Amino acid sequence: SLYPLLYELEAKRWIEGRWLEKPGERRRRFYHLTAAGKRQLVAERRGWLEFANAISQIAGVEYA
Fold first, then answer.
1. Within its chain, how far is the Cα of 13 from the centroid?
2. Which of 37, 42, 45, 51 could form a disulfide bond with 14, CB atoms 3.0-4.6 angstroms apart?
3. What is the C-alpha radius of gyration for the chain, rounded to an integer number of angstroms?
4. What phi, psi does 12 have (nearest 5°)?
5. For each of the chain's 64 residues, which pLDDT tens digit applies?
6. Taking CA 36 as the corner, what is the angle to CA 32 and CA 40, rounded to the nearest 5 degrees?
7. Residues in a beta bridge with 17
8. Taking phi first (over 0 means left), then psi (-120 to 50 degrees means alpha), and beta for anything else, what does residue 28 get?
9. Per the confidence metrics, is the pTM higher than 0.85?
10. Which of 53, 17, 48 is nearest to 32 (CA)?
């Protein structure tokens, strides 16, 4: 469930992963946003806010 999503984001070059290995510990993979990923995040947030505002108007919900 999570890993297919991470692989997809990596294929789109929105994130980059790297392995970290320490003696006596299992290796771990760390991810960070790329510049393209940051741009996409801004666009996704904008879209989500527009959606949430539209739903709020339809439902008549007001937030403090």
1. 12
2. 37
3. 18
4. -80, -5
5. 899 999 999 999 999 999 999 999 999 999 999 999 999 999 999 999 999 999 999 998 776 5
6. 95
7. 31
8. beta
9. no
10. 17
